[in-house]
Amino acid sequence: MIPETYRCVVLARYIDGLPGPDDFAIETRPVPTPGDGEVLVRNIYASLDPGGRTRLSGEASYIPPLSIGDIAGAFNIGQVVASNNQAYAVGDLLAGAFGWSEFGLSDGRGYLAKIPDWELPLSTWIGVLGVPGLTAYFGLKRVAGISAGETVVVTSAAGMVGATAAQIAKILGCRVIGVAGGTEKCDWLKGELGLDAAIDYKAVDDLGAAIDDAAPDGVDVLFDNVGNRFVDALLPRMRMNGRIVVSGQVGDYNLASKDVHGIRNTRVFITHRVRMEGLVVFDDIADFPAAQAEMAAWIKAGKLIYREKVYDGIESAPQAFRDVFQGTYFGRHLVRMAPIP
Ligand SMILES: NC(=O)c1ccc[n+]([C@@H]2O[C@H](COP(=O)([O-])OP(=O)(O)OC[C@H]3O[C@@H](n4cnc5c(N)ncnc54)[C@H](OP(=O)(O)O)[C@@H]3O)[C@@H](O)[C@H]2O)c1
């Protein structure tokens, strides 16, 4: 049965620094009736994405900033409950981008994909097989073009993007060093994920020296999720024709631009022909299905492991978002809003 109202989380004020519950408000709105060509979706999961942080300060990301009162952005897994769009039937399970909201309305354009019946948990389609996992896949395969035998460093290696990148690099025959905060995360990276080394950046005074110990011959690929402080420390360690993949800047998103660490060690771009390139995962959208098929096979074979931290109820989204930046938990952070069908 479709209820008369639903809840969503909206931006209450532009955020300065670490986000928190006071920056958001929970609103109750009438459930809309789909018009011509539209589909109404009941959301089961919403994601907590650190990359959505800049839009919450009124700054543009690769998509425009949010205004006060807008629903906070997120990716979702949902089920169609009413449809006037021939491409989608009631009962279809979809991945989309409706935000922190119990319901969403779509005209079928933008990011909306039916979930194949591959006998994997629904949450994987918003995590390891969704935007974070695909960022790892295309960042390594297309942007870095990694080859077996290369040395790869991954930062925020216990996060969903980082852990997926680290494991894909292992699967493809690389030597992989993960950088993460805390013993528990580093033990997981070395133990369960089988990385060659893990560095607890919170426990070392000099990250560059720790990289020198773990990779005495240098680094071929840096897959960076954290930002300039780590990039600058890694630059002098890059080998000839090294590549730096700028996936994200979770360590910089809460800082004013004047406070972001500068990148000084740039001479290596010339001396070692190093390349640094960012990506927006949706540039590769045409190739998502093939990548998802390859990664699903790795998951089923036990080669690609993922972790999730699931919060219950839309009202938990603001605190869950704060937790993302504090590193309290690890793996994909999700809010569950409806039972899994
Ligand atoms: N380019 C794209 O298309 C695209 C798409 C999706 C995501 N991304 C980016 O990918 C990155 C990872 O995303 P994710 O969803 O997997 O999140 P994530 O890596 O799990 O992010 C949260 C983690 O970041 C680490 N962190 C937070 N503040 C830090 C700081 N100041 N210094 C160092 N580490 C810090 C914490 O781990 P520790 O406990 O280890 O410090 C925390 O658990 C993000 O930067 C995101 O923006 C890019």
Bound molecules: NADP nicotinamide-adenine-dinucleotide phosphate
Query: What low-confidence regions span 5 or more consecutive residues with pLDDT below 50?
Result: none
- What is the tally of helical segments? 8
Any idea how many domains? 2
Structural class: alpha/beta
CATH superfamily of the largest domain: Medium-chain alcohol dehydrogenases, catalytic domain
Mean pLDDT: 96
Tertiary shape = globular
Query: What is the class of the largest domain in the CATH system?
Result: Alpha Beta
> What is the architecture of the largest domain at the second tier of CATH?
Alpha-Beta Complex
Portion of residues in beta strands equals: 15-25%
CA-to-CA gap between the ends? 14 Å
What CATH calls the topology of the largest domain is Quinone Oxidoreductase, Chain A, domain 1
Helix content: 10-25%
Biggest sheet features: 7 strands, mixed
Question: Describe it for me?
Answer:
The chain contains eight helices and 15 strands. It folds into two domains: 5-127 and 307-336, Medium-chain alcohol dehydrogenases, catalytic domain (Quinone Oxidoreductase, Chain A, domain 1, Alpha-Beta Complex); 131-282, Rossmann fold (3-Layer(aba) Sandwich), CATH 3.40.50. It starts with a strand and ends in a 5-residue tail after the last strand. The radius of gyration is 20 Å and the shape is globular. It has helices spanning 131-144, 160-171, 183-190, 207-214, 228-234, 268-271, 288-300, 317-326; strands at residues 5-11, 24-30, 39-47, 76-83, 93-96, 103-106, 113-114, 151-155, 175-180, 197-200, 219-224, 238-246, 275-278, 308-312, 332-336. The chain is α/β, with parallel strands linked by helices and 341 residues long. Helix 3 (183-190) links the parallel strand 9 and strand 10 (197-200). It binds NADP nicotinamide-adenine-dinucleotide phosphate. NADP nicotinamide-adenine-dinucleotide phosphate (NAP) is lined by residues 49-51, 131-132, 135, 156, 158-162, 180-182, 185, 225-226, 247-251, 279-281, 324-325, 327, 330.
